[in-house]
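assembly run, all chains below
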Amino acid sequence: MSINVNAIKYGILFLLLFSLQSKAQSVKLFNHISNEVYTLHSKVLNQDRQFYIHVPEQDSTKPNKALPVLYLLDGENHFHILSSYINYLSHFKIFPQVIVVGIINIDRKKDLTPSHSTKTYDGKEDTTLKPSGGNEQFLQFIETELMPHIEINYKTTSYKILAGHSFGGIATINCMLTHPDMFNAYIAVSPSFWWDNNYMLKLTEAKLAKLSSLKKRFFYSDGNEGTFFHTDLLKFDSLITNRKLKGLEYMYKNYPEETHMTEPIVAYFDALRFILRD
Amino acid sequence: MSINVNAIKYGILFLLLFSLQSKAQSVKLFNHISNEVYTLHSKVLNQDRQFYIHVPEQDSTKPNKALPVLYLLDGENHFHILSSYINYLSHFKIFPQVIVVGIINIDRKKDLTPSHSTKTYDGKEDTTLKPSGGNEQFLQFIETELMPHIEINYKTTSYKILAGHSFGGIATINCMLTHPDMFNAYIAVSPSFWWDNNYMLKLTEAKLAKLSSLKKRFFYSDGNEGTFFHTDLLKFDSLITNRKLKGLEYMYKNYPEETHMTEPIVAYFDALRFILRD
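ok done. output:
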């Protein structure tokens, strides 16, 4: 594991840019969103991995305050949206401050799928799914390489959240069930339960049966995405509700006005509100 | 009117930063949100004014495509949220591309209030409201200085949207009623109708009576902000609805789960969806 030296170069340029900008400002601005892309070589995945990092403005009365960390899958899609929510709402003391790490995909069909399958939701063969089933390895990258990197370089509390959408949703649930010690809270927006003949519903049933408690906060949701999609979410919600797991605080929300791609905008806000509520 | 030369300096540094970053990227990233602060000297207001500008990624098959412009009040609060919505949703072809200009406040109590008053919503005297009533002058700055600046420097269509929250909401409605040629569409999130003994409700009633058509799109909303606030919105909605103005496409939405400060997150998304729907 090594930090790409370019990240340092960009950091210096960024500081230069930011300090020059500050001079021109007559009002104190709090809502700078980082666009920097950091790179870390992963031995586990045998590739360079890239991610965004957003660190909220420091309160000058509490410098270097340790902050929780939100690890966000599909970072290239949703990082700026979540970071701007956290910036705005923490500035007005509605949310606590949270560091956001937005992991950028190389092959989401490989990294975010918990099992191997080459079939799409309608049963068709899809050759781009050949590398699927790499989620276990990807979670190992997060646990043994990315998390230590973040914890060395930023002042963090032990509270960690994992968030994902679609394939990222089943990856998030897979992580909760198979590595329950990695995170304190989970967000699964429109998890793709159709994957591999409902692989994740079956795994949920099997794993939940062996758990007596799950001290987590967990938000899951779906939109207006077709009957099969919603039916799967209702099945999942029944599994969770019927198990009555000690310590599990969960919320299921359906958004009938949202499509698969618009839902993250409202669902991530509700999810953060639920998870960060105290 | 002049462009602060620092803006050019930052622009060059920014390009340098971005081009270096690009080299390290193995995936094409579309969601860069500008943090640059531009400055323009306003003769109308006799002060330097600052604003953010977000220009969506250019489609390489249609370079220099002319884009509509959204002028956003309280830019320091909501610019990054709206820009990230537009980036994400236009990337997935759900929204059209729109340039966002986020105007940063110096004294919002002066610039965004349509009349002079020194009383808060509960009737108390507030000395910080002494300069209030500057909205007319502020709109002149937008019309005669900011808009020409944007139109010279960016490739724009003639379609323009004005958006504001709270005092920015009454400023938006004031603009629609008193300068109906400036914009094509308006967003007023939680407009502060309580201002100056319902000044804006009275103005709406008077102005609407003289209008036979208003070819605009108009979104307004409120949250869970107390009975007086909601009653005012209902009165305003009745005025609009009863007038049956030709060409006016409007939507009123109430968000019972949102407070005054959380509402912009969901309301701006719904508003953009309504206004940009085709």
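Chain A touches chain B through 51 residues (CB under 8 Å).

Chain A has one domain: 5-275.

not gonna interpret more than that til we talk
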